[in-house]
C-alpha cells in the first residue's frame, strides 16, 4: 500500500496517475477561481 492510498483517499486506485491528475486539476482550478474571485471583489476589475 502506498502513502497515497491512506488518509481521505481510501479507495482502490487512489494512487493511479489518472486519479492524481484529476484531483490535482480540481484542486488547482478551485484555487485559481478563488484568487480570481478575490481580485475581482477587491479591485472591481470589470
What can you see in these coordinates?
- This protein has 46 residues and is mainly alpha-helical.
- It is 59% helix and 0% strand.
- It contains one helix and no strands.
- The chain has one helix spanning 17-43.
- The N and C termini lie far apart (49 Å).
Name the poorly predicted regions: none
Number of strands: 0
The structure class reads mainly alpha
Average of the residue pLDDT scores? 80
Layout of helices and strands:
Elements: H1 17-43
Annotation keywords:
single chain; mainly alpha
Summarize the structure in short.
By secondary structure, the protein is mainly α. The chain is built from one helix and no strands.
Amino acid at each position: 500500500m502506498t502513502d497515497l492510498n491512506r488518509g481521505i483517499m481510501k479507495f482502490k486506485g487512489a494512487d493511479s496517475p489518472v486519479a492524481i491528475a484529476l484531483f490535482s486539476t480540481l484542486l488547482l482550478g478551485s484555487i485559481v477561481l478563488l484568487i480570481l474571485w478575490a481580485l475581482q471583489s477587491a479591485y472591481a476589475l470589470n
